[in-house]
């Protein structure tokens, strides 16, 4: 039986650039590096960067993305830091809670989000999506 989220591995094309992005810009803790990868972390998140020269970094059209939690008090400073670094934005926020949608150097879609599942469900109960159902 599955018991929770274990780790996230991202294929990257330039390992030093990706380490700088995740460690210096997003401020994940750098735990280990090796010739073809790195381990970084946040409380509850283990992130592996894996060098893959075959990675196609073209922007995919789907909504698949990886969201990181950010405190409301830190949101504006994070967005300002990312914009100052000229990080590409890929979507405008259309849902509950402040969100900033951006790309990493290899085109992985990321989100910085203020809120959690409980706050999202509360907002959806007030204004449900078409056909939405809630379960106990």
Automatic annotation (TrEMBL):
Its EC number is 2.5.1.18. It comes from the Bacteria. The keyword Transferase applies. The keyword Transferase applies. SUPFAM superfamilies: Glyoxalase/Bleomycin resistance protein/Dihydroxybiphenyl dioxygenase (SSF54593). Keywords: Transferase. Residues 4-115 form the VOC domain. InterPro entries: Glyas_Bleomycin-R_OHBP_Dase, Glyas_Fos-R_dOase_dom, GlyoxalaseI/FosfomycinResist, VOC_core. Gene3D superfamilies: 2,3-Dihydroxybiphenyl 1,2-Dioxygenase, domain 1. GO terms for molecular function: glutathione transferase activity. This is Fosfomycin resistance glutathione transferase. It comes from Pseudomonas canadensis.
